[in-house]
Amino acid sequence: MALIKSQIVVVFLCLEMLALAVSSNAGGISIYWGQNGNEGTLAETCATGNYDYVNIAFLATFGNGQTPVINLAGHCDPSNNGCTGISSDVKSCQAKGIKVILSIGGGAGSYSLTSSDDARQVATYLWDNFLGGQSSSRPLGDAVLDGIDFDIEGGSNLYWDDLARYLSDYSNQGKKVYLTAAPQCPFPDAWVGDALKTGLFDYVWVQFYNNPPCQYTPGSINDLESAWAQWTSDIPATKIFLGLPAAPAAAGSGFIPATDLTSKVLPAIKDSPKYGGVMLWSKYYDDQSGYSSSIKSDV
């Protein structure tokens, strides 16, 4: 009888250790919101319970002496202070433990940094208008966002490392400023490769789409797996995420059917200690496909 009890105890201990191992490697889902007026509100996005990070896209104009402009497509008009109401949505997301991040750049923006001083001025603007600073013209109201996402896909590759350093310095003023980035999967990224070397980035959601040399192709995960290995071994970030389109129409190429993702791709990459989860473009396409709901329990 004592032997049976001890065996039962061993089994329970093994199960507990297994549960800990599984939970420690559990990932989260990051979503981009803001570029389609038909994707629901920010509060509704967070209320789905599917996302751990929401990137508000995009601050599309900044740097080089330009007046910064946020573009949230059909959601609101910042020119008449029409986006300040999003403040309550941000707070409702944060109350659920969801990190809300401002994404700067995008595929069709007008942005570049011309000097280290330009980077410092942009950092000051972001701190005062979206983070913990003070300004009379905060585009999203008084909510304090959790950080800044670098979705740099054009302009120049200069001074993004300076911007990261200046933004990171603000973490010393109380609330941590999270830094995230969305590089392309060919390594190193042409735009923010140098910035990522600073080691200041918390989460890096690598775009494994619209990049045939390193993305999934039906029947083969070799290219994706080797690119993933390089990103997780060479980039000093806290967590690396697998960035994917949420539906076939969301990108030119690189969509992974949910069954392929959960049965083939995730099992191949989740053993990395830097695995953070999956990033999806975007909330609008996720609404159409239900992709996040179908993969959430496996991420």
From TrEMBL:
Keywords: Carbohydrate metabolism, Chitin degradation, Disulfide bond, Glycosidase, Hydrolase, Polysaccharide degradation, Signal
Similarity section: Belongs to the glycosyl hydrolase 18 family. Chitinase class II subfamily.
UniProt-recorded name of the protein: chitinase
GO aspect biological process, one term: polysaccharide catabolic process
Enzyme class: hydrolase
Documented EC number(s): 3.2.1.14
First and last residue of the signal peptide: 1-21
PANTHER family listed in its UniProt record: CHITINASE, ENDOCHITINASE
GO molecular function, one term: endochitinase activity
Residues covered by the GH18 domain: 27-299
InterPro entries noted in UniProt: Cts1-like (IPR045321), GH (IPR017853), Glyco_hydro18_cat (IPR001223), Glyco_hydro_18_chit_AS (IPR001579), Glycosyl_Hydrlase18_Chitinase (IPR050542)
Catalytic activity: Random endo-hydrolysis of N-acetyl-beta-D-glucosaminide (1->4)-beta-linkages in chitin and chitodextrins
Pfam families documented for this protein: Glyco_hydro_18
Highest rank taxon of the organism: Eukaryota
